Amino acid sequence: MPRPSFTETRFPMALSLLFLAVCAHAGQPEPFPIQRDIVYGKVDGVNLKLDLAKPPTGDGPFPLVVCIHGGAWRMGNKAGYHKKIADFAKGGYVAATVEYRFCPQHKFPAQIEDVKCAVRFLRAHAKEYKIDPAKVAALGDSAGGHLSLLLGLMDPADGLEGNGGSPDQSSKVQAVVNYYGPTDFTMPGVWSPLVLAWMGDFLGTKDEKSPVVAQASPITYVNKGDPPVLTFQGTLDPLVPVDQAKRLHETLKKAGVTEHLEIIEGGGHGFGGANNERTLKMTREFLDRHLKGKPADGEQPKAP
Predict the structure, then answer these.
(1) Which of 195, 270, 206 is closest to 237 using CA atoms?
(2) Are 65 and 95 in contact (CB under 8 A)?
(3) What is the pTM of this model?
(4) Spatial separation of the C-alpha atoms in residues 285 and 292, rounded to whole Å
């Protein structure tokens, strides 16, 4: 009997890791007024949708957090972030969780075109949803972290805006929270055969020297004018090597970009327990600091 291939034996395990990571990141559902299935764009006759939560009181305008789920650009559901957007809304943010087209049917740049469209739509409807369009953050895990980085690091001249709608609005965000997202697909010899297979489905190639591989890598777009970036990365992540995060943050630092890399010792592709609570607290402090101007606990406010 022939031995099972690497992909046959490891694919179910890796899918389980992704599923557990999404569950650990999303937490348990919580009742809260959430507007569901708002159509934010349309591509090839297909409606693209998002879910939205707003602070229960106040007229705003409030900062906006756009949450992007993971799943190897091929699976996942915006509903996984319902608890997160409810928590953000209670903390004085408008928060959205967005869907996007999946590979292999829809290859890059479909995914970044979709989430860029979502940001443009929300800015176009800022008055209706009580949003401050000048204070927008992107947050995501795994593939969603990758897309969040692109939203922050790409400039208008870099393109990939797509034609989903609201072309008169900017898609660039003012802060990024990246949970273990890939940052540089061009790094040779760091990806497992399984991840390379997923990249092939996503990018249409596994050749690290192909132009599309650099085009899809957030590190390609780093420059001095980029917004603050916070990354959480586990040292034992079997899908995204810790060197991905280190390489990005070294590049951000050299460019003079405000950044913080939080290494989770022993952490995998997703965090639970005390690590989950710690990263959530750091996320809230990071967003409060950069979107609300609020100092973290024990930090002195800046002089006017």
Answers:
(1) 270
(2) yes
(3) 0.89
(4) 10
Pick the more confident residue, 212 or 45: 212
Beta bridge partners of 136: 64
Token digits of residue 38? 């708002």
Q: Are 94 and 64 in contact (CB under 8 A)?
A: yes
Catalytic, out of 87, 114, 184, 237: 237
Residue pLDDT, tens place only, 201-224: 999 998 889 999 999 999 999 999
Alpha-carbon distances of 48 from 35, 84, 107, 117, 217, rounded to whole Å: 14, 20, 16, 9, 24
User: Which residues 6+ apart lie within 8 Å of 221 measured at CB?
Assistant: 150, 153, 154, 155, 158
User: Where are the strands (E) in the chain, listed by range?
Assistant: 35-43, 46-53, 62-68, 94-98, 131-141, 175-179, 229-234, 259-264
Three-class DSSP category at 41: strand
* CA nearest to 264, candidates 244, 234, 242: 234
Fold annotation for 6-289: Rossmann fold (3.40.50)
Tell me the one-letter amino acid at 158: D
Beta bridge partners of 60: none
- Identify whether the C-beta of residue 92 lies closer than 8 Å to the C-beta of residue 65: no
User: Which of 25, 87, 142, 226 is the catalytic position?
Assistant: 142
Active-site pick, 69, 82, 146, 269: 269
- Residue 207 catalytic? no
Segment 113-165, tens digit of pLDDT: 999 999 999 999 999 999 999 999 999 999 999 999 999 999 999 999 999 99
Please indicate whether residue 142 is annotated as part of the active site. yes
Whether omega for the bond prior to residue 238 falls within 30 degrees of 0, making it cis, is: no
